[in-house]
Amino acid sequence: MSWMVWTMPTAIFFSSIAAMLAGMTIWEILSPTIERKGFLPISTTRGDRLFIGLLSAAFIHLGVIGFTSLSIWIALAVSAIWLLILMRWG
Amino acid sequence: MNNKVPNNRAWLLVLPMLVLVAFSAIIPLMTVVNYSVQDVLGPNARFFTGTEWFESMLNDNALQAAFLRQISFSLIILAIQIPLGIGIALIMPKRGWQASAVLILITLPLLIPWNVVGSIWQIFTRGDIGLMGWGLRELGVDYNITRNAGDAWVTIVLMDVWHWTPLVAMLCYSGLRSIPEAYYQAARIDRASKWAVFRYIQLPKLTNVLVIAVLLRFMHSFMIYAEPFVLTGGGPGSATTFLSQSLTTMAVGQQDLGPSAAFSLIYFLVILLVSWVFYTTIMHMQKDKPPHGGA
Amino acid sequence: MSYRLENTQRGEKYKTVFSKVSPAQRRNRTARSRWRANFLLGLYLILMILPIYWLINMSLQTNSEILGSMTLWPQNLTFDNYIGIFTNSSWYMGYINSMLYVVMNMLITICVALPAAYAFSRFTFIGDKHLFFWLLTNLMAPPAVFLLPYFQLYYSVGLFDTHIAVALAHCLFNIPLAIWILEGFMSSVPKEIDETAYIDGYSFPRFFIKIFIPMIRSGIGVTLFFLFMFSWVELLLARTLTATNAQPIGMIMTRTSTASGIDWGTLAAAGVLTIIPGILVVYFVRNHIAKGFALGRT
């Protein structure tokens, strides 16, 4: 395992991704998702919206890190708000 | 065919595959993420660097140039290969021994190892021993892929067209073969022009396979490595250095684990975005199709 | 949008009333366009074969003839380049190594892909669409991204420089591809067949092996062809994961360039020999290959 050079931040990152997947699975078992159309141009399920949210969050982070001098925490906050908006109204 | 049964025990059938792919995909991907936030000098000498590598990679001029080159390359070869592939599929014989023979001949370039493709073209385009290089020189064209960036570009595009158009042609050919003969008969009786037959019968049938073709061709051209590496080595200068080659040079040649990992992740995210857009398009096209595939 | 069958009857009537082109003229016109199509196809095939012909041509010449003068076909036919490869174990071991990992990869992949593709074609389950998309992203992932961790991973589990390491690494893109193609072929098998078999008292494994697999034989053949093709042509991963014992032929070919120049004849002969296995494989599946290229979906 040592060759994988784990650090605390990446460990937290992957744990939260794993937790999200587990959470989504449990949610799906308790109340199955219904495909619906929100403000996104395509109709999506819960899982689709989570994926779109995570992917756009990655690009938000890249944009903030690469082309602005803002703190990464701002990117994280923006992504979290965006993810919530997407899950609720997307 | 759309009457699939909900059954979560199907996970058991997927599990062996999942374990194998996870071993080859997830563990390495996690490692790449770990590398990307550290400066790894040795097994016990590493420092946390945070987002530094990402910042420097995103602002690296050489990489930005490679990225733009990569995109233009992908667009150019798509613009040539898709129409050419359709054209070839239209004139391929549909039955008999000729069909088998043409099929096998056309598939040939796809079966050649990628570095051998590079070697074939390296030999073919050399001025002293290659047919094409020698022929162009005899015709008075000043053609030299090691010195002239334009020549190198044309040759790489030509090589890729030679190598991958068969894939597009084969996809379209199989799409065309699935059109019932009755459609053509109806068109003949209506005395539809060749163009009308193509526009209203053949092209609609081809949309499905064409999306697959564009997807596959875009992805493969986006990670092209062995062919230009053997043919031009990325030169002259860095005129034909594409993303995979920049990455491999950085990762294997210079052993810069941190920066190359950050670069890998950015590269991967771009690919992920593009493949997601394509995939969603394919899925929605299939969903919107009327039950009997009206066109 | 499309020409429906109803048009046929209307068209039949028009044909008798309005036809301005005589049948002879029309036959003439189709013959001419057929001739033009064949000409264009022939031209494309010739241009396509030319680089390969040149490789074969060079492989049958001595180095002095290659470098000496421009000859469009071998003046002094020689098989020395081929004999050199077949009598030198460091050369022909490259072919054996490549063959070994390709076959291993084909076996591993088809064994795990068959049940998975069946699951995707017959059932819905939680996360199935996302799982399928994730698989496809592995097909799209540039091998260059995975180079370093692969090296570390296989080194740490003690598989570095073995055939099985390359076979496992190629699973990264071959398993998703196999599932994609097989799923297409399986979806065209009516579901009623499964149901009838279960009513007749077949257990799942017995049904799958005795009835289902024989039904999609051609699909499996085509899938194996594609697995062969993509594993055979890949070099970057195969090169990184091997050193001496399992080196692929593509890597050994780089030996032809030495300080005293490049051994063109041997390089060309080795290149020709890498094309031959592909031709043999494609010959066996030639009747189903077109459908396979459309991922079983036409």
TrEMBL record, chain A:
InterPro entries reported in the protein's UniProt record: DUF2160_TM (IPR018678)
Keywords, comma-separated and alphabetical: Membrane, Transmembrane, Transmembrane helix
Provide the transmembrane region boundaries.
6-30, 72-89
Q: What superkingdom heads the lineage?
A: Bacteria
Name of the protein in question: Small integral membrane protein
Lineage at the top is: Bacteria, Pseudomonadati, Pseudomonadota, Gammaproteobacteria, Oceanospirillales
